[in-house]
Every structure is written in structure tokens, then in C-alpha cells.
Design brief:
CATH class: Alpha Beta
CATH topology: Nitrilase/N-carbamoyl-D-aminoacid amidohydrolase
Number of strands: 17
Helix content: 25-40%
Number of helices: 6
Bound molecules: N-(4-carboxy-4-oxobutanoyl)-L-cysteinylglycine
CATH architecture: 4-Layer Sandwich
CATH superfamily: Carbon-nitrogen hydrolase
Order of helices and strands: EHEHHEEEEEEEEHEHEEEEEEH
Length: about 280
């Protein structure tokens, strides 16, 4: 058994405010004996417009948020998986990235979000991530960590099972979906999608989520969840029921601590083998 910590925060446009929230969680996770801490998508900042998103971006090597977390990982000897922004290769865009900081404080892996969230729901969220974000081009093979082989994805990637199936075929035991889901799509789809990914991959699913009002325009659903390879919810944090009633600064950082038994992954896969008909449809 190994303890994983899943953190829930409410990022704003203030990198220092967001770092403070994360630091609290690192210390609590380390004190509880966790072997890794998982933080949400865009933990470094959530801005109120595409231009503000682009104006706040800094490289990993100069971002006070990332440098601060690297220091924290080193002093707490705790690996941290955290969603951030990085400058894109092309002009006037950013990358939506997930990085792995190891227990020595070194960034050892990064995944760039493949699927961008462009929605226009009448009376609901209107968001065009592709205005400010450059899509990634690669699936990053699962990384070896103290809590098993981890397959990295981000938020909206959750709606595309192909990427998780590919990671599972490459050996992933734990799938991560750091997120900032909207409230209406969260209420309708979040738990169902996450449990689906856990069941069809027979893997643990860890989803660290943003929760609460980020600014005048944006509220995230929260409901950080950990799911077992049989599809059962093992732990969850608080969620937003009514986006309009949500006030800024209402949500405190939360930490979920869960005992993962990686043997359950092997057990599920042994007892209920999912043999694909790749003679009929393509292998992913
Ligand atoms: O904006 C940032 O800086 C960070 N990025 C996000 O919050 C992204 C893009 S707007 N959010 C999602 O992908 C939510 C997906 C979702 O809610 C769904 O699939 O229903």
C-alpha cells in the first residue's frame, strides 16, 4: 500500500497566492506520509481572458510558481505532479502542461495537453482554449513513480478514451486527469467519465480539480476524485452546486489522502481480461 495525496485549490491570476495554497498542501501531504502529491490543471494561474493567460506565462526555469514548488518538493522529499502554463514554441500562445517534479525538486517529465476545450453552450460556458493555447502532439509514455506507472492526461482529454487506452497498453497503472471542469459539464459528465476511464482501463484514476470562483467570469466544479480499478470512488472533495452563488475566496485548499493497492490493478486485469478484437478494429 502506498499513500497518494490529491489536492484541490482555487487558482486566481496571482501566482504567489496560488503557490501559497499549494505549499500548504505539500506540507500536509508530506506530514501524512504521502509518496506523491497531485495538483490540478493550471495550478500556477487561471486568468480571466486569453490575453491575460498569455501575459502571465513564464518559462519553467523562471516561473516563481514552479521554482517555489521545486523547492517545496526538495525540502519535503515529495514528488509533485502539477498543471502549469509554459510559453508555446509559436508566437502568442501558451502550452497547457503537466509536469512531474521528483523528490529532489527536478522536473523530470512534461506532458502537453492534446485536446483543447472549445465550447459554446447557450446559457452555459463559452470558452475557447485554442485562442491562447497550442495543442500538444504527443502522448507521453507512462512514467515510473513511487506510486506506480502513471499515464498523464489533462482535463478535457478525459472525453477521449483513446489516449487512456494507449497509455494503458504502454503499462500505465494510474491515470491522472488534473482538471478545471466547468460547473454544468461537471454536474452532467465528470464522475461518469472518470469512472468509465477507470473501469475500461482497469486502472486507478486520480483527478485533482480546481474548485470555486477564479474571477468574475470563471467558476470550476471541484469534486476531486480518486477511483479504483473496479470503478469505485475511493475519495472525493467538495464541489460547487451553484456557480452563480459562488463567491471569490470561498474555497479553502483541500487534500484527499488515499491508500493505493496497485495489486488491485493486476487483480482486475487477471480476473476480467479485456481482450481486444484488433482483427476487427485498429489497435490503439
Ligand atoms: O484556462 C486555463 O488557464 C486552464 N485550462 C482550463 O481550465 C481548460 C481549458 S478552458 N478547461 C477544460 O479543459 C475544462 C473541460 C471541461 O469542463 C469539460 O470537458 O466539460
Amino acid at each position: 500500500m502506498v499513500i497518494a495525496a490529491v489536492g484541490q485549490i482555487c487558482s486566481t491570476a496571482s501566482l504567489s497566492h496560488n503557490l501559497t495554497q499549494c505549499q500548504t498542501l505539500v506540507r500536509r501531504a508530506a506530514a501524512a506520509g504521502a509518496k506523491a502529491l497531485f495538483l490540478p490543471e493550471a495550478s500556477d494561474y487561471i486568468a480571466s481572458s486569453s490575453s491575460e493567460t498569455i501575459s502571465l506565462v513564464q518559462s519553467v526555469t523562471s516561473s516563481p510558481f514552479v521554482l517555489g514548488l521545486q523547492h517545496e518538493a526538495r525540502t519535503s522529499t515529495l514528488p509533485i505532479n502539477v498543471g502549469i502554463h509554459e510559453p508555446a514554441d509559436g508566437a502568442n500562445k501558451v502550452k497547457n502542461t503537466l509536469i512531474w517534479i521528483n523528490e529532489h525538486g527536478t522536473v523530470t517529465s512534461r506532458y502537453q495537453k492534446l485536446h483543447l476545450f472549445d465550447v459554446d453552450i447557450p446559457g452555459g460556458p463559452v470558452l475557447k482554449e485554442s485562442n491562447s493555447v497550442e495543442a500538444g502532439r504527443d502522448i507521453v509514455p507512462p512514467i515510473d513513480t513511487p506510486i506506480g506507472k502513471i499515464g498523464m492526461m489533462i482535463c478535457f482529454d478525459l472525453r477521449f478514451p483513446e489516449i487512456s487506452l494507449r497509455l494503458t497498453r504502454q503499462g500505465a497503472q494510474v491515470l491522472v486527469y488534473p482538471s478545471a471542469f466547468t460547473v454544468p459539464t461537471g454536474k452532467a459528465h465528470w464522475e461518469t467519465l472518470l469512472r468509465g476511464r477507470a473501469i475500461e482501463n482497469q486502472a486507478f484514476v486520480l483527478a485533482a480539480a480546481q474548485c470555486g470562483r477564479h474571477n468574475g467570469k470563471r467558476v470550476s466544479y471541484g469534486d476531486s476524485i480518486v477511483i479504483g480499478p473496479w470503478g469505485e470512488v475511493i475519495g472525493r472533495s467538495e464541489r460547487v452546486e451553484d456557480a452563480d452563488a459562488e463567491r471569490e475566496g470561498e474555497r479553502e485548499p483541500q487534500l484527499l489522502l488515499v491508500d493505493l493497492d496497485l495489486g488491485l490493478v493486476e487483480k482486475a486485469r487477471r480476473e476480467l481480461p479485456l481482450l481486444r478484437r484488433t482483427d476487427v478494429y485498429p489497435e490503439i
